[in-house]
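Q: Structure tokens for this one, please.
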Amino acid sequence: MAAVNISVSRRRRVVALWGVSLGYFLVLLDLTVLSVAEPDLAASLGTSVAGLQWAAAAYTVTFGALLPAAGALADRYGAHRVFRAGIVLFSAGSLACAAAPSPEVLAVLRAVTGAAAAACVPASLAVIARLYPDGRERARAVATWAAVSGAAVALGPVCGGLLVDAAGWRAVFVVNAPIAVLVLAATAGRAVAVPGSARRIDWPVQFAACAALALLTDALVRAGSDPGAAVWPGLGALVAAALFAVRERASRAPVADRALLASAGARAGLAAGAAVGFALNGLLFVLPLLLRDRGLSAAATGWAFLPLTVPFAVNPPVTGRLVARFGPRPPILAGLSALACGGTVLAISAGTGASYPWLAVGLFSTGYGVSLVLPALATAIVRAAPDGAAGSAGGLLNAVRQIGATVGVAAMGSVTTAFGPGRAIALAALACGGGALWFARQGPAGQVK
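A: Here is the predicted structure, written as tokens:
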């Protein structure tokens, strides 16, 4: 990793760090702030649970599928340029979402903002890697990045609930524009400049990946209400996945960094990221519907989420110190275990109609687990990346997280429709338990460093 320019002052590095962190804050805010708006959105646009699934999944489909390409773009053209362009497009797309006249238009515009979000996240990690070349300093910087972005998860449901009750669901998109202005101001200048490279991009492979994920999501969404209608998109997903695998194997510019994937520990870490995305985003989709059925308003639902979301903002600095001292493996295992336990408590509570304090216990365990896993995973994957490939490594980690998120929303939404929220939430516990077992099997010889 090239050393940061010594002429960049510590103060300017801190401002730049907070700027790129606020950019990730914006990306996550647009995801979590919408969760409590689901009932109002459904009533306003006359859409079903499937329509709500696509409003959420259209964002994560393009976000997840384009993250590897965005990481490659950041490495090729300079992470700071890609990051700032993504922020501008994201802000414009959010304002367009606020004016969407139908569920179909909203889903298309959410896909646009998902593509813009994809440009921001791996580029932000590459900028941090450039600003903080020392491993210990980078671990703390990534922890700050995770804490600031985690605040979006904490504030999103609360702010979203207040905005929805005051002005309707469209207000949750308007709030992005002033935040984007702050991000652009904080990331201006040479402090965040990252040189480009000769990295190539295989666009047919990227298109095949996006098509496979979109068709898989469509199949899962349809399966909840009409299993027969899921057959054709399911077959299309298999064909697109096969084309992706064939082209990826022969490509001179593969989507996934082969040197990174050669590590069994890195593969287990990526699987853990997918499990966290599956559980977190699936829960953020299902729980508002559960709480609505219990008579809670949008604002009350936002407050009810606090045991889940507050640890995202509070705990990452502690996780950063743990990673700097003990390495990423212990926090990752502890976090996955907490996620599995939290999902189990939530599933039992939802299935039995238990009172809110039991839900709060499950929510806190889940949120605490996420706050342990994600900063540690980000540090581990960026540390394992070859020189000049931090953007691609960050893109790959966030891609598998968003793929997990997309599948989580589609699968848990469909299971909720067919069997109720208790069984749907149990899927989150199973995913994180499986991720913990896989990661635990990677001993010292195969673990991420």
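A few notes: DSSP finds 19 helices and no strands in the chain. The two ends are 16 Å apart (CA to CA).
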